[in-house]
Amino acid sequence: QVRLVESGGGLVQAGGSLRLSCAASGRTFSAYAMGWFRQAPGKEREFVAAINWNDGRYEDYANSVKGRATISKDNAKNTLYLQINSLKPEDTAVYYCAGVPRRGGTYEYWGQGTQVTVSS
Fold this sequence. Notes:
Helices cover 0% and strands 52% of the residues. It has strands at 3-7, 10-13, 18-25, 33-39, 46-52, 59-61, 69-74, 79-84, 93-100, 109-110, 114-119. The N and C termini lie far apart (40 Å).
C-alpha cells in the first residue's frame, strides 16, 4: 500500500517562499506521474502542478502558479517537491500530493495534506 506524507507547510508572509515535500513509501513504490493539488476554504480542490515520475520530462502547472512554482522530484528518496515563490494570500490552502500509478490512469494515491497560510 502506498503512503504519501506531505510536509513543509506553514505560515509565511506575502512575497515569501515555501518548499513542500511529499515522501512516498510502500513496498516497491512506483508511479507514472505525481502532482500537487490544493484546496482553499470553501473552494473545490484544484490542480497545481504535475511531473512525470520516471524521467521528469513532462511538467505542467496551473496558470495561477506558473512562473512562481517549480515541481521537482528525487527518485532515490521517493520524494516529490513543490517550490512556490512570491507567495500571495490567495495561495492559502491545504496542499496535497497525489500519484497516478500507471499511464492512462487517474490520481489514486493521496496524502493527508499540509496547510499553507500566506498573510498579507
